[in-house]
Design goal:
Jelly Rolls; globular; 21% helix; 3-stranded antiparallel sheet
Length: 211
């Protein structure tokens, strides 16, 4: 019998060696000046340049792993800083029109909730019973799982396809703390964005991306 994995997805994790004290000081300084729990990033923040470099350095390996053409350009497109209880990340969602989603945790203590990735084959749950009353799965694996839970670690970054629906669980106890920095990439090839249609060189944003 020849077993092949088809239509696969992936999760990449990497422990970083960044100065979390400096990053957390930056995060808390933003939080102290606002009542919000989520903040957009510009990729120009001096305190996060080390993080942005780490992500950028990972992109060629992802391009090679997916066996995409070397003529494409994959770059960071948008990003945001989130504190523990932002409602948007507690609900299942994905990142439309993006390519790879990255999430970095400068702080994730042992009491914080999990990051949950959901199987895009939503019909599977109708075929393989996994309820408390009727569970036919002996051991969970990539073929029978409906969700994959990740215990976040401080100073660790995770990457997965942006089309995977995901969410975070609330910390099981009130003292659980978690701060995340999320980023998306997009693919560009010459003057065409696969997720944004035809572009022109008169668009300064696009011109900057295609340099």
């Amino acid at each position: 019998m020849n077993l092949q994995h088809i239509f696969s997805n992936f999760l990449i994790s990497k422990q970083l060696n960044l100065n979390t004290d400096e990053i957390l000081q930056f995060c808390n300084s933003i939080k102290n000046n606002s009542n919000a729990e989520q903040f957009d990033l510009t990729f120009k923040e001096p305190q996060l340049q080390g993080l942005y470099s780490e992500v950028t350095n990972m992109l060629p390996a992802i391009t090679n792993m997916l066996q995409l053409k070397q003529t494409i350009t994959q770059k960071l497109y948008n990003g945001w800083l989130t504190f523990e209880y932002h409602n948007n990340i507690l609900k299942p969602h994905n990142h439309p029109r993006q390519f790879i989603a990255f999430v970095y945790y400068p702080l994730a203590d042992e009491n914080c909730g999990n990051l949950v990735l959901m199987n895009p084959n939503y019909l599977q749950s109708y075929v393989i019973p996994t309820s408390r009353d009727e569970n036919v799965v002996e051991n969970w694996n990539e073929f029978n799982s409906t969700a994959f839970r990740i215990k976040p670690k401080s100073n660790c970054i995770y990457a997965f396809p942006s089309w995977l629906t995901h969410y975070v669980e609330k910390s099981p106890i009130q003292t659980g703390k978690r701060i995340s920095i999320a980023m998306n990439t997009r693919i560009f090839a010459r003057n065409y964005s696969f997720f944004g249609g035809i572009t022109t060189n008169n668009d300064p944003t696009v011109s900057d991306w295609l340099k």
